[in-house]
Write a structure and sequence with these properties.
three-stranded mixed beta sheet, single chain, Rossmann fold, seven-stranded parallel beta sheet, alpha/beta, 10 helices
Length: about 300
């Protein structure tokens, strides 16, 4: 059987699409998991139809594969159970399939939120997923990444915040004293590729950012976005109680139908947490990988893509 270099979950998602593109440029043979193959941007990529709840599909995905990159995860949901099913049980299913297939390396895309598991259901389940990878991988060499806020072309999650930063007055759900690291999606994709080969990174959980140490305040982001646009951008910060109220109302209405809320109590807690700065075991300090896209360049590129796509 011809070995496949890399199997990927979450290939139709924001990060997964960029990772597939990056690996194709690198000349790697790929197999991807896709619930809906019609959403694959590259139709010539080998795929297995299914999701993380289907052990037979995961076994097929991992058969004859050298390495796995597990990108699939649930970022927004209205119940803890929904997060558990994907971020915990889905990860357990994926680890088991990879281990049983004899996969050599398992790269797990986690989140900086896992550093604060008590802050939200999302954060708690991302930490639980990490714990499963560390405890259940058997002889597989595993490595995990905790990226900060990811942005770039094609991302709907950060679109509302990027849109605010294109206005003269940005109305923001966060605190003036809060700080956060950022990373462009293309840099995240190259980091995931870099981890496929390095044995010295195995058994570690890395944080990574765009090289701007100590992260950004909202006002710094506004200043840099204004510089790109050639005008001043000022910030107004929404009071947390108001955003919390909106989140509770949206979650209540979402429970009556199929609409996913834009804000939940958990997401509100994440937005108003004051320290999302990457600083623990930074990947760029412990490997040859380096970020290449600054926030100014990434913001300009992302806004141009949104406008061309009609999203702005």
């Amino acid at each position: 059987m011809t070995k496949i270099d890399v199997a990927i979950t979450g290939a139709t998602g924001f990060v997964g699409r960029h990772l597939v593109q990056c690996l194709r440029k690198d000349g790697r043979s790929l197999r991807v998991l896709a619930r809906d193959p019609s959403k694959l941007e590259h139709k010539d990529v080998e795929f297995v139809q299914g999701d993380l709840s289907s052990p037979p599909a995961l076994s097929e995905l991992c058969a004859g594969v050298r390495s796995v990159v597990h990108c699939a995860g649930l970022v927004m949901a209205t119940t803890r159970q929904a997060f558990e099913e994907v971020n915990v049980q889905g990860t357990a299913n994926m680890v088991a399939a990879a281990r049983e297939a004899g996969v050599g390396r398992f790269v797990h895309l986690s989140s900086l939120a896992a550093r604060e598991p008590g802050i939200s259901d999302y954060a708690a389940t991302k930490r639980a997923g990490e714990d499963l990878v560390a405890s259940e991988s058997g002889n597989m060499a595993w490595v995990m990444l905790r990226p900060p806020a990811i942005y770039g072309p094609g991302d709907k999650a950060t679109l509302p915040l990027i849109k605010q930063l294109t206005q003269r007055i940005a109305v923001l759900p966060g605190s003036k004293s809060g700080r956060a690291s950022l990373l462009h999606v293309e840099d995240l994709a190259t980091a995931l590729v870099a981890l496929l080969e390095r044995d010295d990174t195995a058994g570690q959980i890395y944080e990574l950012d765009d090289g701007h140490r100590d992260g950004y305040s909202w006002e710094q982001m506004a200043q840099l976005s204004g510089k790109v646009q050639g005008r001043k951008v000022s910030c107004i910060f929404l009071p947390r109680p108001a955003v919390s109220l909106v989140g509770r109302v949206e979650q209540k209405f979402a429970s009556w139908g199929d609409r996913m809320p834009q804000v939940t109590p958990g997401k509100t807690a994440e937005l108003y947490h004051e320290d999302w700065v990457c600083r623990n075991l930074l990947l760029q300090d412990n490997s040859d990988w380096k970020p290449s896209i600054s926030f100014e360049d990434g913001f300009e590129q992302t806004v141009a893509w949104y406008r061309e796509a009609g999203w702005l």
